[in-house]
Amino acid sequence: MTIKSSVTSTAFSRRGFLGFAAAAASAPLLAACGGGSASQSGGGSGVIKFWDMPWATPAYNDAAKKIAEGYAPASGNLKASYQTIQWANFYQTFSSAIASKTGPAVSTGGGFQAFQFEQQGQIAYADKVIDALKQNGQLADFLPGVLEPFKTDKGYVAVPWQLDIRPLWYRKSLFDQAGVAVPTDWPSLLEAGKKFKSMGAVGFATGSGAGNNIGNHLMIMMMLNNGGGVFTPSGELDVMNDRNVEAIEFLLELVSNGIVDPAAVSYTTDNLNAQWKDKKAAFGMLTLGVPQRVGDTSGDLVVASPMAGPHGDKAALIFPNNIMMYTNTPSQASSEAFLVAYLGQLKQLWQQKLMNALPVFKSITELPEFTSDPNNVKIVKEYVPIAKTFAAQGTTLNANLAVLDGGQALNQFTQTILTGKTDAKSALQAFQSGLQSVLKK
Amino acid sequence: MALTTAQTGLSRARRGVAPGGPGKPVNRKSKLSAQTRKTFFWLLLPSVVLLILIHGYPLVYASIQATHDGSLLDTGEFVGLDNFATVLASEAFWKAARFTLIFTIVGVFGSWLLGLGLALLLRTKIPAGGTFKVLLLLPWVVPIVVSSTAWNWLVGTPDSLIPSICRNLGLGTPLFLADPTLAAITVMVFKVWVSFPFMMMMTSAALASVDTTVYEAASMDGATRFQQFSGITLPLIARSTYISWILMTIFCVNDFPTIYLLTGGGPVDATTSLVVLAYRTVFQDFQTGPGVAIAFLMTITLVVISVILYRQIRKSSVE
């Protein structure tokens, strides 16, 4: 029995439908090639456009805007405007704006963004800014080692302004309850972890779910903690070195013993924060400001001293965030003058307790507003001197590190380790192959 | 008889023959004066320009990117079809293609079956049917960011609600997002949950146009409920069904947020679809050419599927 439905009698054009289907089907293509939105017009507007990221709460951006727009240039230099750029698709936003000559003259941004745009010839070197900082005395105020990673053969690609570091944290009450000491090396981490496992707590908390890169950073930190790293001192890829293998074998041991949560592979930042807040996580690597982040400022969450690896190495992972200048500017001299002035006002952000990052200037680390938090003091004293970047064992940052930091190879490697269904050498080999296929020679 | 008349009329109309006309195609162009054609041209021009800008320019730019070894900023060197060859030789691409296929099949037919069932249920007189209908639309209406967060709360950790219930029932503690197989199943179930209201609405609209006297006649002829469903309901709503399949296929293949917000494509790429792979290739690995090549391959596949299903619609119309 077949009956013609009244629905079928509706006018239905073949071309019309195919046009609609093709348009809908082309959505991925349009999405893949679509540009981000550049929300301001070009650099020739007679003002230095400063683009900044939401580094902390909106109050931070308000304060930074006040500094930028309150900048009073010397005669002949241009004033500055301020705009917040969201992290979502930020690289696309910058790329589109730069390509259309509507980008900023000065900006903060991704940790390795300056090197990526330097490759494209879009970055103005900051050597004159460094000279000016030398003259006004600020150069000597930089913490040791924070400026050097930005120096290339052609000049300083950017100037650091804050440090994002990955210290180890522990929950004091859980350690008291377990009656174990805070780990100082890998064997003591293993033993403490087993005790926590028996209590139903997590001995080494991490996560690599959607949008959470803590797990990725943990992998690299453990390599560094064992004297390893992804690169040689000269910058060659060196994933398969013995120290890395040893570090990953240890991580797999933690996973197989249940010291790393079996579900950590899927933990988002919220899941991980909840684990710390709910007193399930005893020990782990996280960012700065964990008490504020998880909403427990009782003093129970404390920064641990750096652990020693089996060969006595100590290291921490650090991301020197930076301010860069672009070649597309209405006045390079004005960009430089603004940057020097802005760096001189940074301390206000820490004085107002708006920053969830370490300062790059010693003078700011000595401010009472900063030293009032003992965790901050400990990080500056114990972690900063041993901190290494993603470039380790190399020292100079480069554009390839952006691929390492946010790319698929490291994320897949991390998730493989956290599921525990692999061996160290196979996982590292796959990691190396993945990196080789995407890194620029 | 009426059917024959209708078909004949349709056939004449398709040939451009006016009702009661001489049987020869009418040359419509000849009826339009030069001035009218000119007016039409100027009226259409803004739309055509807009379409070229919206679709034409990005398509051309994307094809340039797909055939060059560049970045978002710099076009780079021409590499011909190398990016396509690289993508097609990549294990990650085929793994993502396999997941996309399964995700789409489950997403389309799972949501259709659920939507059809609920649409049939809502046809019967149930108390508070209107309210029930509105509530059933919620998964489609609620922003995906909100629903994915809610699902993460439900299944994300061993202490979440669903794993806790499983544990209390003695079923162990399933790691819904941490186990690759369970994560893939969870994402598909989430997609079905998000999509069934759309299918329900499409099917409800189609069912509303079916004359109920047909069922009465069939019932008098002794047709069982199943015979009525398979012999009357399904054929009558076939065209709407095919359209909803096409649309849902496109929605599933292009679905980025459902997957990315819930699992990010993990664990270990177990839920990485082609659109997620394209995104990560362009914006995380900064491999613009291969990423756009993936998007091109997706587009071609979707157009082919759409054409095949469209032919099915025409076939069902003729029947």
Can you characterise this structure?
The complex is a heterodimer of chains A (441) and B (319). By secondary structure, chain A is of the alpha+beta class. Chain A is built from 20 helices and 13 strands. In chain A, strands 1, 2, 3, 4, 7, 11, 12 and 13 form an eight-stranded mixed β-sheet that branches. Chain A has a three-stranded antiparallel β-sheet with strand order 9-8-10. A two-stranded antiparallel ribbon of chain A has the order 5-6. In chain A, helix 6 (127-136) packs across helix 13 (332-344) and helix 9 (214-225) crosses helix 10 (242-256). The relative contact order of chain A is 0.16. The model of chain A is unreliable at 1-24 and 30-44 (pLDDT under 50). Chain B has a single domain, classed as MetI-like (MetI-like fold). Chain B contains 15 helices and two strands. In chain B, strand 1 (68-69) and strand 2 (77-78) form a beta hairpin. Chains A and B meet through helix 1, helix 2, helix 4, helix 11 and helix 18 of A and helix 3, helix 9, helix 11, helix 12 and helix 13 of B.
Q: Terminal Cα separation of chain B, in Å?
A: 15 Å
N to C succession of SSEs of chain B: HHHEEHHHHHHHHHHHH
Would you identify the CATH H-level superfamily of chain B? MetI-like
Q: What is the CATH class of chain B?
A: Mainly Alpha
Residue fraction in strands of chain A: 5-15%
Strand content of chain B: under 5%
Helical fraction of chain B equals over 70%
Radius of gyration of chain B, in angstroms, nearest whole number: 25 Å
Oligomer kind: heterodimer
- CATH T-level fold name of chain B: MetI-like fold
Keywords:
heterodimer, A: 441 residues, alpha+beta, D-Maltodextrin-Binding Protein, domain 2, three-stranded antiparallel β-sheet, 20 helices, 13 strands, globular, B: MetI-like fold, two-stranded antiparallel ribbon, disordered N terminus
